[in-house]
Backbone:
C-alpha cells in the first residue's frame, strides 16, 4: 500500500516537472522569436539580402509616387501661371475700361498751354501722364531715375522699370504731329501692358514751338487691339508708319535737342538725388534700394558726383545679374566699357580696370575709388544732388552735350567717386561704321559752339584746371 502511494507521488512529481519544462521551453521559444523579429528589422548584415527584392518594389513604388507628385506640381504651377496671367489681363482690361470712361486717358496735355524754353524755340509740357505710385515712390526712395527719349528708343523703359524700383522721370520729344500721335499711342500702350511703367513713370513732352501742332489724336480702337506680347514689334510698326526718311531729313536741319530734354527730365524729379541717363542705359538690379542705404552714410558737402560704370553688352547674352557675371562677360569679350571702340575718352577716366579689381565684401554699395585722371570729353553717368549745373541747351543733337556739363562740374569743384558693385549697361557692342553720317555733322556743329562755351565757363568760375584757355 505504501509502495503504491509512493509510486503515485513520484508520477505526480514527474508530471509537474514535465509541465514546468514545457512552460520554460514555450517561454524560451517566444522570447527567441521576438529576438529574431527585432534582429530582422534592424540588422544590416547579410540577412538583408532576402529583403532586397521587396525593398526594390517599394522603392519603385515610391519613385512612381514622386513622379506623380512632381507632375502634379508642374500642373499646379502652370495653373497658377494661367490664373495669374488671366488676372493680369483682367486688370489690364479693367484699366482700359477705366481709360475709356476718361476720354483723355488721364492725359494732362493741352497743346495751347505748356511753357517755353529760354530761347522761345520749344514748348515744354510737364507731367503729361503721372505714374499711379510715382508720388509714394518719390517719398520712399532717395534717388529718381531721369531719362530722355524719342519714339525710337522708348521701349527700353520696359527693362529699366523692371530693374529700377524707384520713381522714373522720362522726358519725350516729338518732331511732328504724326510723331506726337504715335508717341502718345505707344506710351498709353506701355501703360496698358506694363504695370511697372504704369506705376513708376512720370512722362513729360517737348516740341518745337513753330512746328507745334494744334491738336493730337489717340486712336482708342487701335489701342484696344494692340497685343501686349510683342512691344518691339508694335514699336517697329509705328516707326515705319512715322515715315522715317522725312524725319531723318528733318533732323539734319533741327537735330534732337538732347540737353533741353535732359533738363526737362531732371527738373521733374522730385527727390533729393537724380540719376540722369539716356533711356537705353539700363541700371543693374536693385540699384535704387541699395542707393537708399549708401546715400544715408554720405556726408558730402553737395559737390559730390557718384559715377556708375557703364558697359556695352553683346546682344546674344542675358543682362548680367551682378558684377561678377559682368566681369566674366568682359573677360570673354561679351561686354566692354561704354564707347570703348567708338570714342574711348567718353568713359576712360572711370578706370574700369580698377573697378573690376575692387573686391566687394558684400552687395552693399561702396566707393571703389575717386576719379583722379579727369580729362576733357569725359561724360560719365552719375548720381548727384540736383544742384549741379544744368545741361547747356545750345548743344543740340549729338556731340558735346553731356561732356560740356560734366566739364563745368569739374571746373566748379565737383569730385567724382566711382561706385561698386552697381553698374549700367547698353545693348550692343558699338563700332564707328554703324553711326549715321548726320551724327558726325552734328558733332562738328557743336564743336564750334564749344569755343564760346569754354570762355563763358572761365569767366563764370575764373578757373581753367584743364588749361582750355591756353593758346594752342
Residues:
Amino acid at each position: 500500500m505504501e509502495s503504491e502511494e509512493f509510486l503515485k507521488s513520484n508520477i505526480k512529481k514527474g508530471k509537474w516537472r514535465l509541465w514546468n519544462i514545457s512552460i520554460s521551453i514555450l517561454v524560451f521559444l517566444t522570447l527567441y522569436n521576438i529576438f529574431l523579429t527585432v534582429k530582422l528589422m534592424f540588422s544590416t548584415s547579410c540577412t538583408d539580402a532576402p529583403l532586397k527584392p521587396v525593398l526594390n518594389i517599394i522603392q519603385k513604388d515610391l519613385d512612381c509616387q514622386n513622379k506623380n507628385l512632381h507632375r502634379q506640381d508642374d500642373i499646379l504651377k502652370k495653373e497658377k501661371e494661367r490664373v495669374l496671367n488671366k488676372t493680369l489681363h483682367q486688370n489690364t482690361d479693367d484699366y482700359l475700361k477705366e481709360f475709356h470712361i476718361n476720354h483723355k486717358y488721364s492725359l494732362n496735355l493741352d497743346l495751347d498751354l505748356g511753357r517755353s524754353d529760354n530761347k522761345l524755340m520749344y514748348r515744354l509740357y510737364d507731367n503729361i501722364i503721372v505714374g499711379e505710385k510715382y508720388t509714394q515712390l518719390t517719398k520712399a526712395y532717395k534717388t529718381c531715375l531721369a531719362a530722355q527719349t524719342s519714339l525710337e528708343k522708348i521701349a527700353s523703359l520696359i527693362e529699366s522699370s523692371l530693374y529700377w524700383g524707384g520713381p522714373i522721370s522720362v522726358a519725350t520729344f516729338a518732331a511732328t504731329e504724326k510723331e506726337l500721335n504715335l508717341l502718345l499711342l505707344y506710351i498709353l500702350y506701355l501703360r496698358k501692358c506694363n504695370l511697372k511703367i504704369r506705376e513708376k513713370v512720370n512722362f513729360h513732352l517737348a516740341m518745337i514751338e513753330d512746328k507745334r501742332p494744334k491738336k493730337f489724336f489717340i486712336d482708342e480702337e487701335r489701342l484696344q487691339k494692340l497685343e501686349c506680347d510683342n512691344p518691339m514689334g508694335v514699336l517697329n510698326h509705328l516707326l515705319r508708319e512715322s515715315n522715317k526718311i522725312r524725319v531723318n531729313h528733318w533732323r539734319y536741319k533741327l537735330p534732337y535737342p538732347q540737353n533741353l530734354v535732359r533738363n526737362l527730365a531732371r527738373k521733374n524729379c522730385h527727390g533729393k538725388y537724380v540719376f540722369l541717363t539716356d533711356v537705353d542705359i539700363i541700371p543693374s538690379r536693385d540699384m535704387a534700394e541699395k542707393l537708399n542705404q549708401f546715400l544715408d552714410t554720405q556726408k558730402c558737402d553737395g559737390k559730390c558726383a557718384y559715377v556708375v560704370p557703364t558697359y556695352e553688352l553683346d546682344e546674344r547674352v542675358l543682362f548680367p545679374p551682378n558684377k561678377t557675371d559682368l566681369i566674366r562677360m568682359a573677360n570673354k569679350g561679351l561686354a566692354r566699357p561704354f564707347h570703348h571702340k567708338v570714342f574711348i575718352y567718353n568713359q576712360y577716366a572711370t578706370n574700369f580696370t580698377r573697378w573690376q579689381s575692387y573686391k566687394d565684401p558684400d552687395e552693399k554699395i561702396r566707393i571703389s575709388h575717386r576719379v583722379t585722371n579727369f580729362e576733357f570729353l569725359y561724360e560719365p553717368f552719375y548720381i548727384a544732388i540736383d544742384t549741379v549745373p544744368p545741361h547747356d541747351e545750345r548743344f543740340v543733337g549729338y556731340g558735346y552735350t553731356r561732356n560740356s556739363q560734366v566739364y563745368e562740374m569739374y571746373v566748379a569743384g565737383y569730385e567724382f567717386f566711382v561706385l561698386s558693385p552697381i553698374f549700367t549697361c547698353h545693348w550692343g557692342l558699338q563700332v564707328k561704321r554703324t553711326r549715321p553720317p548726320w551724327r558726325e555733322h552734328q558733332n562738328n556743329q557743336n564743336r564750334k559752339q564749344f569755343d564760346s562755351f569754354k570762355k563763358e565757363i572761365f569767366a563764370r568760375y575764373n578757373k581753367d584746371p584743364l588749361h582750355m584757355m591756353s593758346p594752342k
About this structure: Residues 56 and 124 are 77 Å apart (CA to CA). The chain has 15 helices and 14 strands.
